Amino acid sequence: MAGLLLSPSEKVYILHGIEDDFRSDGRSNIDYRPMELETDVVSHASGSARLRLANTDILVGVKTEIDVPKPDKPNQGKIDFFVDCSANATPEFEGRGGEQLANNISNLMQRAYHSEQAFDLKQLSIFEGKQCWKLYVDILILECGGNLCDAVSLAVKAALFNTRIPFVKAALLDGGNVDLQLSDDPYDSKLLEVGTAPLLVTLCKIGEKCVVDPSAEEESCSVISLVVGVTGNPKCYCSNEDASKLHEHISKCSTIAMNGPGSVAPQTLTNAIKQGINAAKYLDEALGKALLRERQDITNFVKHSYGFFK
Amino acid sequence: MPLDYRRFNGPEDSVSYRRFTEDYTKDYKQFLDELIDENGRRKGGREMDEARTLCMFFARTGMISQAKGSSYIELKRTKVACSVFDPREIVHQNEYSTLGQLYCEVKFAPFSCRGERKALVPDSDERALSVALKKALEPAVCRHLFPNYQIDIFIYILENDGACLPAAINAAGLALSDAAVPMYDIITASSVAISGDKIFVDPTDDEEQLAIRNHDGVNHGVITMSMLPELQQVSDYRQIGSMDADCVLNALSILEKECKKIVPYVQRVLVQNAINSFEQQKKLEEEAKEREEALNAKMEVWKSILNVG
After folding, report:
1. What does the alpha-carbon distance between residue A138 and residue A60 come to, in Å, rounded to a whole number?
2. How many CB atoms within 10 Å of residue B13?
3. Cβ–Cβ contact B127 with A under 8 A
4. Which of A210, B28, B229, B302 has a 20 to 30 A CA-CA distance from A83?
């Protein structure tokens, strides 16, 4: 990653450690670093989340807006990803420096969320062919400490889980135009179904082995990394009673991409894809648990009404 | 977005009339039936696993005279032209780069796609294709041989009937070797479109559209892979859609075979290219010799005239 200098001997040290399944910070090749996740951190956004994965810091805000659906998909809403690499992360991101990286990540997210099986855009429809919700997912990279793709996908999923869309109270048809009246009460809103939203897992090829969650130092030892987007299990994102009603879930790959200037042998690619799907499954379960706990805390907080209309 | 004022644009909220035609309202089943006939063959008479390259591979190098190297590939109705220019020094570069850079630009011709006319400014499709092309080509080129220089690769898609990224990669591989850019290996690419249990090798535009649609939660998607076949290395692999692991691995092995199948065709074009340039050189040398002989003969004549004088 940007602006990091490593001597050849440091690189050899990292490489040899990974050969023996032992990384410089004490993890094994399939371990993630501890992460911190907060939701509902930005008051002006419909949904937001902040994720800190060791030194990587990501802030995601979701804004909603009413838009006209695409003519060829009249019953679907829209979702758009914007990545902004803050110059706080590294001076190299100043000006247009981070543009390429930002484009890369937003393209990757767009592709991962493209399939209906990954994220159902039908839930964003308001009035078929006339109006739909458009979600603007703004991703701010505050600090980079390696493994941006994974951290971004986790934060985005958490922010979408946290997103509230106001209910439509009334709709007036005036000629061909629809006039909507939205509920003013922030609690009178629906939540999105994001159980199937994909998580990205980066597998960094260092030496002969692939590691998950590479740190910035490890990333600079590698010429190629593979990003696997795996759809989530909706069972992990709802209460136990609801979960029993759902069908058995099979995780599917919603995108696969390669980053970096190198190339890999087909056999390595096969192994990495399998490893990625496995890792995503555990990550998804952990994220689901954390988010449900957080939501529980919020719902315990009851809304108080004041005034003589009570 | 800048509008093109030289042509009639129509009101802003107008939609293409195609949306109201029967073609557009077809459901999944009808679409599938139309693409595959009762014998399991695809529209156009191909087998499911038959690439267009095998029935008609129309490729050549030396298309564009002002470029250092160029190529043209035609897969039935997908037509791609590529030009590669000499390495040149990178201007406004802050730091010295030890590896040479590749600059790739993919452009659709305004008339290349069905439906909307493509605008002159690059849209997101074109930018994504440029990035994909760069990723695919980088491992194939010996970039350490031209530090701080960049090679420009321009792809112009004249007609798009599916599989334009693999066609672009194949064309760029040919053009790079035509331009005598040092490379580790030939680069070939292929793609598959998956919809349920149907796997379309080298899909057409219709088949790609079908594969992108979700139907009843079955596997669907499009996968493109590029390979350095002799070195057994995958230089790029990208997937869109949603499919389970078995399906991905199955597609991977199919793509690996397909990429290898293209190699002899590429080799034939390259050998033909070498023979042509060799012959041309021979012809030029012969012509030069003839001219010199003629000149010498004339010299003799002049000498004799002078001597007489």
Report:
1. 6
2. 8
3. yes
4. A210
Q: What distance separates the 2 farthest-apart alpha carbons in chain B?
A: 101
Tell me the CA distances in angstroms from B2 to A67, B10, B209, one per residue in order.
Answer: 22, 15, 29
DSSP secondary-structure letter at B119?
A: P
Count contacts between A and B (CB, < 8 Å).
Answer: 93
Instruction: For residue B291, report the phi and psi dihedrals to the nearest 5 degrees.
Output: -65, -40
Residue A60: predicted pLDDT: 92
* All residues at 6 or more sequence positions from A97 whose CB lies less than 8 Å from its CB, including other chains: A85, A87
The minimum CA-CA distance between A37 and chain B, rounded to whole Å, is: 27
Helices and strands (H and E) in chain A: how many: 6, 14
pTM: 0.85
Q: Please check the confidence at residue B293 and state whether its pLDDT lies above 90.
A: yes
Phi, psi of B131 (to 5 degrees): -65, -45
pLDDT in tens, B166-195: 999 988 998 998 888 899 989 999 999 888
Q: Which residue has the tokens 């400014």?
A: B121
Q: Within an 8 Å CB–CB cutoff, is residue A250 touching chain B?
A: yes
How far apart CA A213 and CA A150 sit, in angstroms, is: 8
What pLDDT is recorded for position B55? 46
